Amino acid sequence: MPSGRVPKFWPSVNGFGFANCWPSQPLFSVGFRNLLRVHVGDASYGLCGGMVFAIVDLFQAGAEPPDHDEPPPHGTPLFFHLRRRLFDSFHMPWGVLRYYSWMAHSGWRESLARRTARLVWPRVRQEIDAGRLAPLGLIRVRSRSPADLGQNHQVLAYAYDHDEAAGTITLWICDPNHPRCDDVTIALDLRRLDEPGAVSQSTGEDLRGFFWTRYRPHRRPLPTFRLARP
User: Fold this and answer.
1) CA 225, CA 67: separation in Å to the nearest integer?
2) Angstrom distance (rounded) from CA 10 to CA 159
């Protein structure tokens, strides 16, 4: 059975200890001092993309994530880093349009599961075989409303098993909604790609399909973390 994994990566070791759960607060404000300030974004929708990119940042730098279990407060260096990496993960503006296109996909010509198997799975396998973590955009809903974009999600794939005889693919993922859990997986059933449930997540959240997101390296100094031991 073909399989692959990124060496030395484990969500329980390399992932954040806090969940992707934030109080309602603006991601940032635009304006001059206290005059005509406009609040942009809402952290309560999640910073999953920022957490995923930050995990890759730390892993590639050989640095450990912080050991606390509570999300960093607004105004701290780590929060600012996650916020910046969140916007990096969207690859504005085309990345957001990609989420919308996949979310609005009707499936009358090709199901989203079949598109995932045809276009995405080969690239994810290629990334993991090359020893690279693979960020994924998960499509959880079917909707044409831009207001529903926040219901989708981002995770990080680090290992796979492909059972060719059974026609199934299992991806092991680091999910910011399930901190430091090594047993969270996504399953893709190649035998019934046009049926409901062909793509599923072990934790039970709805899942229609997913796509690979290109990791964008961070070009500024990371917040101070303890360096991992050799």
Assistant:
1) 10
2) 10
* pLDDT (tens digit per residue) in 136-191: 999 999 999 988 988 999 999 999 999 999 999 999 999 999 999 999 999 999 99
- Rounded to 10°, the helix 77-90/48-61 angle is 110
220 to each of 60, 84, 133, 199, how far by Cα in Å? 14, 11, 20, 37
d(CA 203, CA 198): 15
Contact 22, 71 (CB under 8 A): yes
Reply yes or no: is the peptide bond before residue 71 cis, omega within 30 of 0.
no
Q: Which two tokens stand for residue 167?
A: 């026609």
pLDDT per residue as tens digits for the range 68-92: 889 988 888 888 899 889 989 988 8
Cβ neighbours of residue 203 closer than 8 Å, sequence gap 6 or more? 175, 177, 178, 184
Quick one: which of 96, 84, 199, 204 has its CA closest to 147? 96
CA angle 93, 128, 158 (to 5 degrees): 85
Q: Nearest-CA neighbor of 60 among 171, 200, 217, 204? A: 217
